[in-house]
Specification:
Blueprint: H1 2-16, E1 20-24, H2 35-43, E2 47-51, H3 73-78, H4 88-103, E3 108-113, H5 116-126, E4 133-137, H6 146-149, H7 160-167, E5 177-179, H8 189-199, H9 205-214, E6 218-220, E7 240-245, H10 253-266, E8 273-277, H11 283-286, H12 288-298
Parallel strand pairs: 1-2, 1-3, 3-4, 4-7, 7-8
Antiparallel strand pairs: 5-6
Helix pairs in contact: 2-12, 4-5
């Protein structure tokens, strides 16, 4: 019996290991945020690769004033941005290079979170033949160009917009760059509680502090451009899953459902495979096991 169970486990792990999950982070984030999920995927026998998009994480020379305590806000506003000049095409090039390399080893599943959804859409538009599946984890998905310019016909009672406005650093001159002072929350208990409620309410204060310390200050919202809109004849060829987060107060369930519906209208013959988890916007960091199990089940 022991030998039989060992063989079953070995066969299961061998099968899973033929697939690589390529993980694309969201706004103000980087590859480090995927660490807890990657550990859980490894325990399930799944191979994964988390990358930094240009201007993020280890690819960024971030403003030193962001990390120094006490903070000099004037110096923080004046510091040049590592996001300067970064475009959606740069993101696509970075992800496509990784996907192409892993494609020689087996199937590739491209996973994007939050703002990272724009990048994985653009990658699928560019190289659908390299992808076996896309997974949007409460991620932005633009079904048509009007979503870039027109108001969205959905009630959005998210908690993140208002609190993000409070930590936005004024006076940053880089076009398209938003600089958020996440670390300010360490010295402001009320702000800390509001941010936690908006993005990671289903976790402890300790875990949220770890997340805050991992976040980058800068994000480039110029990635909200036509290249991030799905193209039915290319994006629509790739199977796609939407991991809907029912406790998300950053991108609310109503907004997630709206994006799913708009995308399905463009590719009715290949609609989203929708999976729902009772988790917060960054639940994959605070409760990585349930996310890993869901991803593993997809392959």
């Amino acid at each position: 019996m022991t030998r039989f169970l060992t063989m079953r486990v070995s066969m299961r792990f061998s099968t899973l290991c033929t697939t690589t999950f390529v993980l694309v982070h969201g706004g103000s984030s980087n590859a480090r945020a995927w660490g807890p999920l990657q550990n859980e995927l490894a325990l399930l026998g799944c191979r994964s690769y988390a990358l930094d998009l240009p201007g993020h994480g280890d690819l960024a020379d971030g403003p030193a004033a962001y990390y120094r305590q006490p903070q000099d806000i004037a110096a923080l506003a004046a510091a040049p941005s590592p996001m300067s000049g970064v475009t959606l095409r740069d993101n696509v090039r970075r992800v496509t290079d990784a996907v192409r390399r892993f494609g020689d080893e087996g199937p590739v599943v491209l996973v994007g979170h939050s703002l990272g959804g724009l990048t994985i859409t653009a990658v699928a538009n560019a190289v659908p033949e390299l992808l076996d599946r896309m997974v949007y984890v409460s991620a932005l998905c633009l079904g048509d160009p009007a979503m870039l310019t027109d108001p969205w016909d959905v009630a959005d009672d998210n908690l993140l917009d208002a609190v993000a406005a409070r930590i936005a650093v004024p006076g940053v001159s880089e076009p398209g760059v938003v600089r958020l002072n996440w670390r300010r929350a360490h010295s402001d208990p009320a702000l800390f509680a509001e941010l936690k409620a908006a993005v990671m309410a289903d976790s402890t204060d300790h875990r949220f502090r770890l997340l805050l310390d991992s976040l980058d200050a800068d994000e480039n919202h110029s990635v909200l451009e036509p290249g991030a809109v799905i193209r039915a004849e290319r994006w629509g060829r790739v199977p796609h899953t939407y991991v809907r987060l029912s406790e998300d107060r950053g991108i609310t369930p109503a907004v997630q459902d709206y994006m799913i519906g708009r995308a399905d209208a463009v590719t009715p013959d290949n609609p989203f495979d929708v999976r729902t988890l009772a988790a917060s916007h960054v639940g994959y960091f605070s409760r990585p096991r349930i996310f890993a199990e869901l991803l593993a089940a997809l392959v």
